[in-house]
Design a protein that fits this description.
With 258 residues, the protein is an alpha/beta fold. The chain has one domain: Metallo-dependent phosphatases (Purple Acid Phosphatase, chain A, domain 2, 4-Layer Sandwich). 30% of the residues lie in helices and 24% in strands. It has seven helices and twelve strands. The strands form two sheets. It has a seven-stranded mixed sheet with strand order 4-3-2-1-10-11-12, with helices on one face. A hairpin with a 4-residue loop joins strand 11 and strand 12. It is globular and about 50 Å long.
Length: 258
């Protein structure tokens, strides 16, 4: 990567989250931010739960998100590499976005080498042992037979289901009290510690938890990207340093988080 270019990481946008007017406001802030980083971005990693609900059929995709998808297409056309990880809310993204926008789709964590540093990248859900209830639910969502059966439902009904699901979430209801559970209870940190016993990494970057944090384990760091519901946070790699930033949605100014 050239010295004047950067790699950006963002997660848990939950576009389409109820109520729709607030989602539209967040989308506009997001699109403005994407325009700002386009001048120095070499790559953008969208690390999961970009949409609060997404299900695409062979010939039908969800309506909305026009400004966001248009900006991504513009970035892709300008040569910025886009990477999209499916999360637990947008697990039913298939080939539409890769074909229309030119992004690369990932369903599992990946390992990347950047400027001599080793990165472990993933949405951050279902890592390590335990959390069996969530893993069972994810198995259902990724099961090919169940996916085929859901695709037989008329789009009007499936989208209505998605909207009801979004409306019932704790974030839609304003229940956003999340706190860091501690190094021995945060599953992403526990997973990183276990992984480092077998293989060395410099950075683990995840989403999913909606809590921005930066935890050191020896010379490695575990970073959670937070969300764009409450925190408006993202990470940026400039070839030497990885930093966690936030955007003030009122003034749309970037703030370095310490």
């Amino acid at each position: 990567m050239t010295t004047d270019k950067k790699v950006y990481f963002i997660s848990d946008l939950h576009l389409g989250l109820y109520p729709p007017e607030r989602s539209a406001e967040r989308e506009k802030v997001l699109v403005n931010w994407l325009g700002q980083i386009s001048s120095d971005a070499a790559e953008l990693y969208l690390m999961g739960d970009i949409f609060d609900f997404w299900h695409e059929y062979r010939h039908v995709v969800p309506r909305g998100f026009t400004r966001f998808l248009g900006k991504l297409a513009e970035m892709s056309d300008s040569g910025i590499k886009l990477h999209f990880f499916t999360g637990n809310h947008d697990i039913w993204v298939y080939d539409y976005l890769p074909a229309e926008i030119g992004l690369t789709l990932y369903r599992d964590p990946v390992i990347r080498e950047m400027d001599g540093r080793k990165f472990f990248l993933g949405h951050g859900d279902g890592l390590g042992p335990g959390d069996h209830g969530y893993k069972l639910m994810k198995w259902g969502f990724t099961n090919k037979v169940l996916q085929w059966l859901f695709a037989r439902i008329h789009p009007n009904a499936s989208m209505a289901f998605g909207k009801r699901w979004s409306k019932s979430s704790r974030y839609a209801k304003g229940i956003i009290a999340e706190s860091y559970r501690g190094d021995d209870k945060e599953l992403q940190v526990v997973f990183a510690k276990s992984t480092l016993e077998r293989e060395q990494f410099d950075y683990f970057i995840f989403g999913h938890r909606h809590i921005p944090f930066d935890i050191s384990i020896g010379r490695a760091r575990v970073i959670n990207l937070g969300d764009w519901i409450v925190h408006f946070t993202f990470a940026v790699w400039d070839g030497k340093n990885l930093e966690l930033h936030s955007v003030d949605p009122e003034q749309e100014k970037t703030i370095l988080r310490r």
